[in-house]
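Notes to self, Putative FAD-dependent oxidoreductase LodB:
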Amino acid sequence: MPPTNRQYNCIVIGGGPAGCTAAALVAQAGYTTLLVERDALPREHVGESLMPETYWTFEKLGVLDQLKASRFAKKVGVQFVNNTGRESQPFFFRNHDPHESSETWHVDRAEFDQMLFDNARAKGAECLDKTRVLDVLKTQDLVTGVRLQSDGQTVDISSRVVFDCSGQQSLLANKFGVKQVNPNLRKASIWRHYRGADRDESGGGVKTIISHTRDKQAWFWYIPQADDLVSVGVVADNDYLLKGRGKPEQIFAEELQKCDGVRQRVEGAEPLDDLRVAKEFSYSTTQPAGDGWVLAGDAWGFIDPVYSSGVYFAMKSAEMASECVIDALRLDDPSAERLGAWNDEFSAGTKWVRKLVHAFYSGEFRVGKFAMEHPEHTAALTNLLIGRMFHEDVPKLFDDLDPWLERMIAEASDSEPDDEMVDGAPVLA
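result:
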């Protein structure tokens, strides 16, 4: 159905975690808010593993009790498997911080996103799915609304702020030419779900498992979920994974045979008929906001799935940007400067995760060895994996990690060092 009004204080594009967070917080502050999602909800989506630091945004949204009562699998840690199939000890987040925020969930994104969508409606936003944004409306350089298509009708809706959380569709970033694909992270992924695969719940919950293939050309995620399902995906350079190798089903099977850490876990399990592909998904934007518009979530940028940061970045950026939107509406000043004031702090935090991603893809990131040589940085590294990217100790980590990694790359040989355990401590990668 079309929107009930023709004018709102804020229009939010995209009904994923970022859009639902933005709509809920702006509406809760007392401003008329319209949230539109182009697809019919509920709908499947990749990105089921959450970072523990999402806890604080969930608390602000008022959905923690729903999550605690949900059927979602409780995530208590991570585990890494090297290219030889050797496993690290499980790394439990609560050993770093015993607060309940150190445990989170592996979610069914269809159900999770629907919960957040319903929460935005409960907070006062008008929420519509099956509604496409055809264009944005402008008066000179000021964005003043959107043109929508809903139930076969095309309508122009005005607003004081357009909040783009359209995900990798990146509607405004593409329109205004501010999206840039990362040339050093041109990755692709193929993923599917299995029923009846291995499920280790030692430690009181499930873990995200990251496993390299034997040739280290690719890595797999392994994410146990509710209802005896496991999400399994392979990630590699786009050209290596998808070009000239046949159908995605065949490529997935070939890479699985080279990944003992995952292949053994899915033996005898039932692969579901839901294989999907994504490519060249790492990108950034050169401008977070303009007059009358602001970006958040994947519409602002996406780094890589390796550390499960996507949903946390989406929700945290939307939370921070929402504060700027509320401020702009209160002062009647929807300028680029005011709407984008959140960006510097957020970018300063996410750049450390970006650096850790590049370290992972160097092929020589031996965290056990690094921790042995620099035990003073173990807490900072753990903070990054949990999502505490704004912690004051994190920048100091890279003062030593960068030169150490350069030395490891220079010393790299065909043999793999046996550093999976250091004084009984778990290896993180």
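- The chain has three domains: 7-61+109-182+283-346, 81-106+187-279, 362-426.
- The first helix runs from residue 17 to 28.
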